[in-house]
DNA sequence: CGAATTTGACCCGCGC
DNA sequence: GCGCGGGTCAAATTCG
């Protein structure tokens, strides 16, 4: 008798559970529909903007193409008259293609590379940007852009007692050097999550304050990343994309950091600095300032440093690992055009009423970033469309220099490169 | 014993 | 051309 009663209770519980799941399913469908609608409207807006821009461009196509040619040294048929940079429109096939070929052909063993082997040589060039520049002086524009992308660096400054920050990737140390002007050695690491992955990073302590760890990332992963690594990879590639989209149009050395600052690190206007000066354009994300900032990492008592960030945990699955710095950013692996950590402008938000990212100013930074992250990571196509749309919308703030976009800074938030080395 | 790290040698770009 | 400095290689060593 009690067994029957138990069975009935179980059945009732399961029915309740099914009903609850149905309700949840309906909500999710509603959300999906909302997102789809928003995406469609945004896509339409993007199309309209691009058409308008194309019309403007085609009115003076020769001047534009001549300017591009002068800047890059070759025409790029992919771009045509569209001013949206490739790294924002493509979902990374160009870089991926090449980097995929790297993985199949690149050999770190230089002695094994027969001289004159074009394929191996090409891979070697992509491995070493210095060689690439020298050995292929007449490369097409897109290749030049890719080479520049590889050269672009993202430097993260953070306080840490640990010898290296935990970013979710597997790294293999391949060298260490004493850098001039810094008593602390600089360590060189290479991503070992996939054979031929071109991503490298340098780790060095700041000479002025040795509690500050400077980690410089270079390159884009050519393999899927674990959740814990996606955010940082996305952040660095996004920062690099942002940097290059501006640095290639600016010859001033220091260029606008406002836009990047607002987008990569929407919570703080003085955490991201950009140096487009030689030898490599570098974005510096400074996490050592503003102790009251919610994004400010806190020193861990032992082991790798982590960045506690309330309200943003879903991207990290490892229960033992508290959300670390990159957590605050969105992620899209293999996508150099990802616009991470996006803070929606009211204009954009109005056109994209994401369920969590309402145009109303967010009550907290955490919600903003969480919502933006959710929106961005939802769909890679949407990511590309959104980034392109933003670029287009910001077009009002753009000027064209030598046929390329230049983001105009509305406030004078240009900070000197604080690199210590 | 295989993987990871260390470390001296080497390569390359750049300035003088 | 030479020296310096940054970056990488690879043999030796250490570690798990």
> Shape from CA axes?
elongated
Give the number of helices: 12
- How is the biggest beta sheet arranged? 7 strands, mixed
Distance between the termini: 78 Å
The H/E string reads HHHHHHHEEEEEHHEEHHHEE
Secondary-structure-based class equals alpha+beta
Oligomer: single chain
The averaged pLDDT comes out at 53
Share of residues in helices:
40-55%
Beta-strand percent range: 5-15%
Query: How large is the radius of gyration?
Result: 23 Å
Number of strands: 9
Low-confidence stretches: 57-144, 247-270, 291-421
List keywords for this structure.
421 residues; alpha+beta; seven-stranded mixed β-sheet; two-stranded antiparallel sheet; 12 helices; 42% helix; elongated; disordered C terminus; DNA-binding
Structural write-up:
The chain has 421 residues and is of the alpha+beta class. The chain has helices at 2-59, 61-72, 86-89, 93-105, 118-127, 129-135, 141-151, 227-247, 258-264, 346-351, 365-378, 380-393, and strands spanning 153-159, 171-178, 185-191, 200-205, 212-218, 272-275, 282-286, 398-401, 404-407. A seven-stranded mixed sheet has the order 2-3-4-5-1-7-6. A two-stranded antiparallel ribbon has the order 8-9. It binds a DNA duplex (16 and 16 nucleotides) through helix 6 and strand 2.
